[in-house]
User: What shape does this take?
Amino acid sequence: MRKTANILVGASALALLLGGLAFAPQASAVGEMPSKKVCKSKPKDPVVAGGCIATDRKKGNCQACHTFKGLEKTRLQAGNIGPPLVAMKQRFPNKAKLRAQIADATQFNPTSLMPPFERHGILTKEEVDKVVEFVLSL
Assistant: This one.
Protein backbone atom coordinates (compact mmCIF):
# COMPACT_ATOMS: atom_id res chain seq x y z
CA MET A 1 0.00 0.00 0.00
CA ARG A 2 2.79 2.39 0.90
CA LYS A 3 4.60 1.90 -2.45
CA THR A 4 1.37 2.58 -4.32
CA ALA A 5 0.83 5.84 -2.39
CA ASN A 6 4.40 7.01 -3.11
CA ILE A 7 4.00 6.24 -6.80
CA LEU A 8 0.72 8.16 -6.95
CA VAL A 9 2.22 11.17 -5.15
CA GLY A 10 5.27 11.13 -7.44
CA ALA A 11 3.10 10.80 -10.55
CA SER A 12 0.85 13.64 -9.37
CA ALA A 13 3.83 15.91 -8.75
CA LEU A 14 5.25 15.14 -12.19
CA ALA A 15 1.90 15.80 -13.88
CA LEU A 16 1.60 19.11 -12.03
CA LEU A 17 5.12 20.13 -13.05
CA LEU A 18 4.62 19.22 -16.70
CA GLY A 19 1.23 20.91 -16.77
CA GLY A 20 2.77 24.10 -15.39
CA LEU A 21 5.51 24.01 -18.00
CA ALA A 22 2.91 23.83 -20.77
CA PHE A 23 1.63 27.27 -19.77
CA ALA A 24 4.98 28.87 -18.92
CA PRO A 25 6.35 31.41 -21.39
CA GLN A 26 8.68 29.86 -23.90
CA ALA A 27 12.30 30.77 -23.27
CA SER A 28 14.54 31.42 -26.19
CA ALA A 29 17.57 29.25 -26.64
CA VAL A 30 20.69 31.26 -25.94
CA GLY A 31 22.59 31.90 -29.10
CA GLU A 32 19.70 31.92 -31.53
CA MET A 33 16.85 34.07 -32.71
CA PRO A 34 13.97 34.35 -30.22
CA SER A 35 10.45 33.53 -31.34
CA LYS A 36 7.78 36.18 -31.93
CA LYS A 37 5.88 34.79 -28.95
CA VAL A 38 8.88 35.34 -26.69
CA CYS A 39 9.40 38.86 -28.02
CA LYS A 40 5.75 39.81 -27.45
CA SER A 41 6.16 38.93 -23.76
CA LYS A 42 8.77 41.74 -23.37
CA PRO A 43 11.62 39.55 -22.07
CA LYS A 44 13.75 40.82 -19.17
CA ASP A 45 16.83 38.77 -20.07
CA PRO A 46 19.19 41.15 -21.96
CA VAL A 47 20.30 38.44 -24.41
CA VAL A 48 16.74 37.53 -25.35
CA ALA A 49 15.63 41.19 -25.41
CA GLY A 50 18.61 41.95 -27.65
CA GLY A 51 17.58 39.14 -29.98
CA CYS A 52 14.10 40.64 -30.18
CA ILE A 53 15.54 44.06 -31.07
CA ALA A 54 18.01 42.56 -33.55
CA THR A 55 15.25 40.74 -35.42
CA ASP A 56 12.64 43.51 -35.26
CA ARG A 57 12.20 44.78 -38.82
CA LYS A 58 11.62 48.32 -37.51
CA LYS A 59 14.71 48.29 -35.29
CA GLY A 60 17.85 46.22 -35.84
CA ASN A 61 16.68 44.05 -38.74
CA CYS A 62 20.05 42.26 -38.60
CA GLN A 63 18.77 39.28 -40.61
CA ALA A 64 18.38 41.56 -43.63
CA CYS A 65 22.17 41.49 -44.04
CA HIS A 66 23.40 38.69 -41.76
CA THR A 67 22.59 35.06 -41.13
CA PHE A 68 22.61 33.53 -37.67
CA LYS A 69 21.34 30.51 -35.76
CA GLY A 70 17.57 30.26 -35.46
CA LEU A 71 16.65 31.85 -38.79
CA GLU A 72 16.21 28.41 -40.34
CA LYS A 73 13.18 27.89 -38.06
CA THR A 74 11.38 30.88 -39.54
CA ARG A 75 10.16 32.06 -42.90
CA LEU A 76 12.70 34.88 -42.83
CA GLN A 77 15.35 34.91 -45.49
CA ALA A 78 18.81 35.79 -44.24
CA GLY A 79 20.85 38.32 -46.13
CA ASN A 80 24.36 37.77 -47.36
CA ILE A 81 25.66 41.35 -47.50
CA GLY A 82 27.23 41.13 -44.04
CA PRO A 83 29.24 38.28 -42.58
CA PRO A 84 27.44 35.44 -40.79
CA LEU A 85 27.06 36.11 -37.07
CA VAL A 86 28.80 33.02 -35.70
CA ALA A 87 31.54 32.57 -33.08
CA MET A 88 31.11 36.21 -32.11
CA LYS A 89 32.90 35.93 -28.73
CA GLN A 90 35.96 34.65 -30.54
CA ARG A 91 35.71 37.28 -33.28
CA PHE A 92 35.09 40.12 -30.82
CA PRO A 93 36.81 39.32 -27.51
CA ASN A 94 36.66 43.06 -26.77
CA LYS A 95 32.99 43.76 -26.02
CA ALA A 96 33.50 47.52 -26.34
CA LYS A 97 34.78 47.13 -29.90
CA LEU A 98 31.70 45.08 -30.88
CA ARG A 99 29.47 47.70 -29.29
CA ALA A 100 31.22 50.45 -31.24
CA GLN A 101 30.85 48.42 -34.45
CA ILE A 102 27.10 48.03 -33.93
CA ALA A 103 26.59 51.62 -32.76
CA ASP A 104 28.44 53.13 -35.73
CA ALA A 105 30.39 50.90 -38.13
CA THR A 106 31.40 53.91 -40.22
CA GLN A 107 33.96 54.94 -37.58
CA PHE A 108 36.01 51.88 -38.58
CA ASN A 109 35.06 51.80 -42.26
CA PRO A 110 33.66 55.05 -43.73
CA THR A 111 32.16 53.14 -46.68
CA SER A 112 30.43 50.52 -44.52
CA LEU A 113 26.92 49.56 -45.61
CA MET A 114 25.95 48.90 -41.98
CA PRO A 115 23.76 51.71 -40.67
CA PRO A 116 25.11 53.76 -37.76
CA PHE A 117 22.31 52.52 -35.50
CA GLU A 118 22.99 54.69 -32.46
CA ARG A 119 24.24 57.82 -34.23
CA HIS A 120 21.18 57.93 -36.49
CA GLY A 121 18.79 57.20 -33.61
CA ILE A 122 17.63 53.86 -35.01
CA LEU A 123 18.50 52.26 -31.67
CA THR A 124 18.94 53.82 -28.25
CA LYS A 125 22.09 53.30 -26.21
CA GLU A 126 20.26 50.70 -24.10
CA GLU A 127 18.98 48.88 -27.19
CA VAL A 128 22.50 48.74 -28.65
CA ASP A 129 23.75 47.28 -25.35
CA LYS A 130 21.09 44.54 -25.51
CA VAL A 131 21.89 43.76 -29.15
CA VAL A 132 25.56 43.42 -28.18
CA GLU A 133 24.60 40.87 -25.51
CA PHE A 134 22.59 38.91 -28.08
CA VAL A 135 25.31 39.01 -30.75
CA LEU A 136 27.93 37.83 -28.25
CA SER A 137 25.72 34.79 -27.56
CA LEU A 138 25.91 33.73 -31.20
User: Anything to note?
Assistant: Residues 78 and 107 are 25 Å apart (CA to CA). DSSP finds six helices and no strands in the chain. The chain has a mean pLDDT of 79.
